């Protein structure tokens, strides 16, 4: 029998052994690593990343942990920290070739092709017979648009590893790019034969069938993928998209409701139904569904973020702000929450704050396409159009599938008549989204504008085939028929568009324009009235009716009634409000027009046109102080606005203001409106005030040429200014001619009395 003393020694040794193990850093780091591996195998990537990080904290040179953390971060779609971990892995383990391959693929994805080639060169030297290395080389060549070379490398990969499905998939994608669809289909099928339960090739071939207009075959493949892997949400999403492509909206909805029941604990699965409602434009159902999800899964941060986004779209800004602030309180640099805050600020009209918030979001994540897109919206409303376009281009570069950014960019190009830019954007949309009608519709516009009618017709036929229930194709067809001077066919197309979408402003505008081209204003007015009967709450329809009554029928009372209704339905309808003021001016109600613009400014404080028109009205009353204040406020909203700059410069010179500032403003106006006779005259008058008479003469002469070229009215004021400038340069005959011309044009214009004085002085 052992003595008590021996038992005490044994216990002490046992305790020492236990605590010694727990303090051994090698044991502890290994435990964390193994725990991370178990989480990784179960698909719990966030937990795995924590455990691998714990292992690295104990041993910063633990290469295996760095590599596993990198793979985990890739699963979490966090490429930047994954890249850092892969770099560290290769630094610690130069012979870790799988890590080098992953690093090179990440560099290729980021378009860092030179750096990727450096890794490829090492791998080709060290592992010349590795199928993975030749597949990597194929990816690199493909990224550099050397598709034939990439195919050769992929063939080497297949020869070295004939049982690897990844190589067959890669080959199929390259063959698609090389316009070899039949060969691509064959290789997709070979990959399926090697899949052994991996549904990746099923999804790839299904997508290939969708792209090539074979939805039934795609449906069969996606159904098989769901059967093989019921928990795979990608397969379920693809199947729902096929149902939608076939026009089976009810089947898609029923399937996604079943998905929610089948996978009640899978966030991606139970969010699908709400996302479906959002994608189909049913914001009410989407918001209701996400309200229910948020109630059931309040700790699911993605549910919360999506719900906030829907609240913003529904203009429930207070609710959205409250939930979003909760996220920012816990995570002040959360990019998604910063973007949502920026969106709310845009809708609230706090555009400078929005721009600052979204710039902060971009600092946190410079590759966030949505942040760039939203910043573009803020800058666009601030009048910084070039910067806005730059942001949209960056958004499209980062995420070519971001359709909102593509549309904004295309809209900007269309607004300033950049058909070359619009064609490039349209082609990019077509390449990336061949089953979307949008790219073809935009390209049809460019071809129509260039009289490429046959090409435009081809694109329109494609739009009609892809989206037969949409008004878009019929609107494009109407525009084409107008350009071809086939008014009856244009009318029919626009009416078909209105049949598809009774709320389509573009369709009604096109129909009315066609009637007006045929000198049938009564029909244009009747068309607007008929459509208002079908859609009585459409502000734009009343705007179109009011415009026709004002401009074509000179029915000022009817126009005023219609435009007031447009403004009542939508207080942000700037076009209707601007025209309402014009109608009131035409009726001689200047004070009423000023009141209209004052109210419009309260509702639309970021719209410079209201300030400018109000300033012009004050000018007509010779209320110079109020006019100056209005123009200054317009420039606060849009600092480079050429019309506000022009008018403010003129008012300042009329009232003895700072001539140097007036000159600077006039130069801004001239840059912004190079074809404006008014801008040329204002700048000339500023030079006259500075004593630069010869420069002034050149500009006054340019103003007269521009007025004649634009077939505008001969302006007595410009002739008066030119006469004074000739007088200052001792060209008395020319001065007399211009001053007499001014009186002949308008004997009662504002400076007529001074003209008579100048002429009388010349005779004495």
| End-to-end C-alpha gap | 146 Å
Rg, rounded, reads 35 Å
What value does the average pLDDT take?
A: 92
Helix content: over 70%
Strand content: under 5%
Shape: elongated
Class by SSE composition: mainly alpha
Compute the number of strand runs.
0
The major beta sheet can be summarized as:
none
Total count of helical runs of at least 4 residues: 45
Oligomer: single chain
Low-confidence stretches: 9-21
Compose a concise summary of this entry:
79% of the residues lie in helices and 0% in strands. The chain is elongated.
Topology:
Layout: H1 4-23, H2 25-41, H3 45-58, H4 63-75, H5 79-92, H6 97-109, H7 113-126, H8 131-143, H9 147-160, H10 165-177, H11 181-193, H12 200-211, H13 215-228, H14 233-245, H15 249-262, H16 267-270, H17 272-279, H18 283-296, H19 301-313, H20 317-330, H21 335-347, H22 351-364, H23 369-381, H24 385-398, H25 403-415, H26 419-432, H27 437-449, H28 453-466, H29 472-483, H30 487-500, H31 505-517, H32 521-534, H33 539-551, H34 556-569, H35 574-586, H36 590-603, H37 608-620, H38 624-637, H39 642-654, H40 659-672, H41 677-690, H42 693-709, H43 716-728, H44 732-745, H45 752-763
Helix pairs in contact: 2-3, 3-4, 4-5, 5-6, 6-7, 6-8, 7-8, 8-9, 9-10, 10-11, 11-12, 12-13, 12-14, 13-14, 14-15, 15-17, 17-18, 18-19, 19-20, 19-21, 20-21, 21-22, 21-23, 22-23, 23-24, 24-25, 25-26, 26-27, 27-28, 27-29, 28-29, 29-30, 29-31, 30-31, 31-32, 32-33, 33-34, 33-35, 34-35, 35-36, ...
